[in-house]
Design brief:
464 residues; alpha/beta; globular; two-stranded antiparallel sheet; 11 helices; single chain; 11% strand; Alkaline Phosphatase, subunit A
Length: 464
């Protein structure tokens, strides 16, 4: 039996291919070799309700809607530095993996006056270019960090980066800046995969007349032949992996059947508004995790939803009809409990992805999560105030042991001096630039980068 690498492809009749995860029995390299490092981002639109997300703010006044962005910071009760992390109500779904996560407060982005708040917070989340440094666009939008770090992590993967989105609506009223966080360069968007079936075929492509058949069926004969050469542990891993692929296929079939059923019903909203929201997010999450697991890519972005769109979603288990996250965010006083439910719902989906990654064993006994930096974040600190300060940030994984985990890192300097910004257009900041986090991640992941966007330096406290 010829040995193979972790990225071995199984091929079946009809041109189907299926990438394998790492299997010790088939590895050319010894199991002690370190697995590759990965980076991924889980972006949540509209910010969060601070009362449920941030420590010490549960009794804070409910903010009224502010039409333009503000510089409100309300989480300065904790001193700067590392602290024990007590999960807040919104963060409760993370309990089982808390030791492998880091909660960060006190990171800001600089808002460029004169352009839309929501468009900037999405399209510039991974850019963080200083205001007025980009002349080709009304937004401070440049090449995003995922494509920068892919120069280091994506040299040997089939896909340098992969972009996933959970917005399949067609009735958008906004420009692409509201609906994309990954950009090759200024106004050069990296298109996201939004349809699970299309994403599946892009990752595990089929050809010819066999394209309509299940990929796992097409490669099954090859798989049975290979299985005979595996040890018991790898046989179990092999079966588990194939079961997960089959589950993805079943979920896609169910979603498509449900969509066809809804199309025939008499409803006012678009069909997509009535499809189960959590199932869609988890399905796209499964595809992203599988791509990272099998080495199809080491860099991925995952956008939960667009900014400012009023199209409703079906948050199953929360409401009896589709609701608009954006519209609710403009009236926290009236919808505070519903908004807290939506934030908790999003955190459940993030926790699902994190736990799945932590269940996948790598070549040296670590997990996929251990070797990844998966960042949960939003471009707004609060959906009502539109603040660009005190952003909600959680990092899952340690990038191969390079970052600290299990702690709350508070960087807010509200009670102390405001740090100087290396910018021709200084603005009020109570914390540190978000770009400092991206710079820290770049260095942790092995990139030789000394500065990124408007960063002022790496977060040394975060480094292990």
């Amino acid at each position: 039996m010829q040995t193979t690498s972790r990225r071995k492809l199984l091929r079946g009749i009809g041109g189907a291919t299926l990438a394998l995860p790492w299997l010790e029995s088939l590895a050319k390299t010894p199991p002690q070799e370190k697995p590759p490092k990965r980076a991924a981002w889980f972006y949540v639109p509209i910010g969060v309700v601070r009362r449920g997300f941030f420590p010490g703010e549960s009794e804070a006044a409910i903010p009224k809607f502010t039409g333009s962005r503000t510089e409100v910071v309300t989480d300065a009760e904790l001193s700067v530095g590392l602290h024990d992390w007590q999960l807040t109500p919104t963060q409760e779904p993370l309990q089982r993996v808390k030791d492998k996560l880091t909660f960060i407060t006190g990171l800001d982005r600089t808002f460029q006056e004169g352009t839309d708040v929501h468009a900037q917070c999405a399209s510039c989340f991974l850019t963080s270019a200083a205001p007025h440094t980009v002349t080709q666009s009304p937004y401070p939008q440049a090449r995003t960090f995922d494509h920068v770090i892919a120069e280091t992590l994506g040299k040997h993967t089939p896909f340098r980066t992969l972009e996933f989105s959970c917005n399949s609506h067609k009735d958008n009223k906004e420009s692409i800046q509201f609906d994309n966080i990954s950009w090759y360069g200024t106004e050069h968007v990296a298109p996201s995969m939004r349809d699970p079936r299309k994403a599946y075929h892009r990752l595990f492509g089929t050809q010819g007349l066999q394209a309509s058949r299940n990929i796992t069926d097409l490669v099954l004969e090859d798989a049975r032949s290979m299985r005979r050469h595996l040890g018991k542990a790898d046989q179990n891993k092999f079966e588990e992996y194939f079961d997960s692929i089959r589950t993805i296929e079943v979920q896609m079939d169910r979603r498509e059947h449900l969509r066809n059923t809804i199309k025939n019903a008499q409803i006012d909203e678009p069909t997509e508004a009535h499809l189960p929201r959590g199932e869609y997010i988890r399905l796209m999450g499964d595809l992203m995790v599988t791509a990272l697991q099998t080495g199809l890519t080491n860099v991925a972005t995952f956008m939960v939803g667009p900014e400012r769109w009023d199209t409703p979603y079906k948050y199953e288990s929360l409401f009896d009809k589709p609701r608009s996250h954006h519209q609710m965010s403009h009236n926290q006083g009236r919808f505070i409990n519903d908004l807290l439910k939506v934030d908790h719902f999003h955190m459940q989906q993030f926790a699902y992805i994190v736990e799945k990654m932590d269940s996948i064993e790598e070549s040296n006994g670590t997990t996929l999560l251990d070797n990844t930096l998966l960042t949960y974040g939003s471009g707004l600190g609060d959906g009502a105030t539109h603040q660009y300060s005190a952003l909600p940030i959680i990092i899952a994984g340690s990038g191969g042991g390079r970052l600290r985990t299990g702690k709350h890192l508070n960087l807010s300097t509200k009670s102390g001096p405001v740090p100087k910004r290396q910018s021709k257009y200084p603005q009020l900041h109570h914390g540190l630039p978000l770009a400092n986090l991206w710079l820290t991640q770049a260095q942790a992941l092995g990139a030789n980068i000394e500065r990124f966007a408007d960063s002022t330096g790496p977060l040394s406290t975060l480094m292990a």
